[in-house]
Structure formats: structure tokens, C-alpha cells
Amino acid sequence: MARGRLAPEANDSCRTLSLGRAFPCPTCYRGAMCNLYSVTKGQQAILAATRAMTDRTGNLPPLPGIFPDYGAPIVRNGPDGKELVLARWGMPSPVFALKGKKTDPGVTNIRNVGSPHWRRWLGPESRCLVPFTSFSENELAPGGSKQPIWFALSDDRPLAFFAGIWTRWTSVRKIRESEVAADLFGFLTTEPNAEIATVHPQAMPAILTTEEEREAWLRAPWSEASALQRPLPNGSLSIVLRGEKQDGTMELVNLAAAASVERAASPLPLLEGDPGSSERRGDDGEQKEPILTTP
To answer: Which of 2, 161, 197, 231 is the most buried (most CB within 10 A)?
Structure first.
């Protein structure tokens, strides 16, 4: 299958396109957004907005284009309060999606939080804030090509945060990398608001814009925090750029290595934890066997 082409078995409302690789999308992938965002505000701005007490990122450069499996900053609850750390974008894939595969590139966007696979990471200890200044959705252009459309809260691209989850996991992300232990993250998606729906009618990321929302996401029980998986009000977002694969002229930087520790080779795939047989099944209880295609 050619790069960027979805398998014919994929359902239009349940699929994602990630870095040119086609993935027919099982239920827990439903409504994935475009896999590209930026954070060009410095770490001091992130620390100030979140009141994080610890910075473990080192010298954090502007990141005008963050792609799946790139390393990026997140803010999470640590033993001494909130901490700013680096993690790789892409949570562990459900077990059934890895059948016959040697690598797990991860799941960047999470919609179906009722899935047993995702429920284990919905507590405050596994939630995080994902800072961003803009994010893109692909718009279908005449002739079938796609161009990134970049959205932000306003033209000056103020700092905001996706509602994220994270975990520490051991797996093979890339064959050439072998096995690594890494902190991984993804963020929740929801129905699109009016601005996003014109470009991507399936979904938009769940975005936190106030200190009250950020604190609730990190600390509230799921019965309260779940309300934050909702679209922004109509009129909250502006289109700030079209057609570019990064938002800014700064050099692209992948911080994945800084968020990983190489491990000795072992049978693949190796995943910590016990996902359980229930995660091999969809919401209807029937076993799902998605067709995953690679370039």
C-alpha cells in the first residue's frame, strides 16, 4: 500500500493517518486528530502557568513541529509536587493491535476512555498536561492532496494545554532503536467545535485553558475530570497558518532519546503490565483483528 493511503477495510469514522502509515482504527482509536502540534513558549512560561515545582527537561528548545514518537514536555504529578518532564508522544497500543508486529509506535490520541485499555490510566497519578501553542489538522485540497491547517487560541499563539495521560513503559518503538524504557503520553480527543469541524469533522483535542481546569485535570476524581473531555466553545480558535509542516522557522528537534533508556534486546514486543484478555476485544465483546499496514 502506498504511503498515506488508508486500507479499504478502514471505516471512515474510525481511522487515523500517522506519519504516512495507514492504521484502520479499532474502537479505542476513534476520532484521531492530525498528529502534529507545536510548543514554542519556553519552559519558564510552562512552569509559571502550571506552578510546577520541578523542571527535569534541561535546556528545552522551542519545538515548532512535534510529530508522533517525538519527545516533548509534559507536566505531571510527582512525589514532590508537579514536575515538568520529557516524554515520547504515543501511549502503548492495545494488545490486539500488536499481533504479528515487532514494534509499537504508540497511540497519540485517545477518544474511547471507556475501553479497558485506557481506563487504567485515568486516575490523577496518570494524568498530565501537554503544553502547546498551536496544532494542525489536515484539510483535503482539490486533487486529493492534504495540507496542514494550524489552529491556536489567537494569532499570538498563547500557551495552552491538552488533557493528557502518561505511563512508563518498556517496548520496541523502532526496530533500529531496539527495546527502550520510556515515559509515554497521549491526549484525549472529543467532538470538534465549529472551527475544527470545517477541516476535520470527526474530532478535536480536549483543551484546557484556565488554571481551574488544569488543576481539576491533575487532581480531581475521574467522575469530575471526565467533564473536561469536551470541545472548546465555538469561536475559541483561530487559523494561524496554512500548508506548513511546522509552525515557526526554528529547527525541528526530536527529544525522544532524552525521554528513553535503551534496554537489552528481548523477544518482541515486550510490554510491561498485564493488559488482560479483555483488551483484545471491542466494545461489543467480539475479538477485533485490525489490519495495520506499513509503508
So the answer is: 161
Q: What is the pLDDT of residue 33?
A: 56
HEC-encoded secondary structure of 158-189: CCEEEEEEEEEEEEEEEHHHEEEEEEEEEEEE
Place of cell 502550571: 50
Contact (CB, 8 A) for 291 and 9: yes
pLDDT at 279: 31
Cβ atoms of 27 and 281 within 8 Å: the answer is no
The reported pLDDT for the residue numbered 84 is: 98
**Other CB atoms closer than 10 Å to residue 240's CB: what's the count?**
18
Q: Give the angle subtended at the CA of 75 by the CAs of 74 and 76, to the nearest 5°.
A: 115
Distance CA 222, CA 253 (A): 34
Write down the residue that cell numbers 471526565 correspond to.
Answer: 226
Are the beta carbons of 193 and 201 closer than 8 angstroms?
no
What's the pLDDT at 165?
98
* Length of the chain as a residue count: 295
Q: What is the pLDDT of residue 282?
A: 31
10-residue mean pLDDT profile of the chain (295 residues): values are 32 32 35 78 97 95 97 96 97 93 95 96 98 94 88 98 97 91 97 96 96 98 98 98 95 92 46 34 31 30
Query: 83: buried, middle or exposed (CB in 10 Å: 19+, 13-18, 0-12)?
Result: buried
Q: Which residues pair with 207 in a beta bridge?
A: 162
Nearest to residue 291, comparing CAs of 13, 19, 24? Answer: 24
Distance CA 81, CA 124 (A): 12
CA–CA gap between residue 126 and residue 120 (Å, rounded): 8
Q: What pLDDT, on a 0 to 100 scale, did the predictor assign at position 34?
A: 64
